[in-house]
Amino acid sequence: MHFAKRLQRDAVQLWGDSYIAYKDLKKAIKQIEAENSGCLRSETEFARHLRTEMNKVSAKYTEQCTHLERLLKDLEEGTGPDCENARLRRVLNTVVIPLLNQLRGYVALNTTAVVKIVKKWNKTMRSKTGSSLDATAMLLGHKVVLGFNIGS
After folding, report:
1. pLDDT at 1
2. What are phi and psi of 73, to 5 degrees?
3. pTM score, two decimals?
4. What is the DSSP annotation of 31-93?
């Protein structure tokens, strides 16, 4: 299965616009290749476009982590001797755990998208630009890859 289809299939529908625009990035590579503009400026523009997409992902991730932190804080404040264990378990099972699973999938899909699109860029353009992009270096600068830091 092509990754673009997997991304579309596995994406959380409500967050659809917050994923890496993988198809758009592939189109950009094809357009640059067709224009035969394999210069360093093209690589810089492509990397900027990719970073913009990554910033969008990081913003959504941060938003969802903040939401999750609020949920956990509300739960923590409601856990006194009078709090119902059944209610607490219900909130954890119906809200918190599903959101954590969605965030885990969100991180995995977007990280894979970055790695795959950089690999595609390097395969297509390395001979024209004489250089390549480093997916690992690009990913390490973004909060979404660094994992959860909830409650810190």
Report:
1. 65
2. -65, -45
3. 0.82
4. HHHHTT--SHHHHHHHHHHHHHHHHHHHHHHHHHHHHHHHHHHHHHHT-STTS-HHHHHHHII
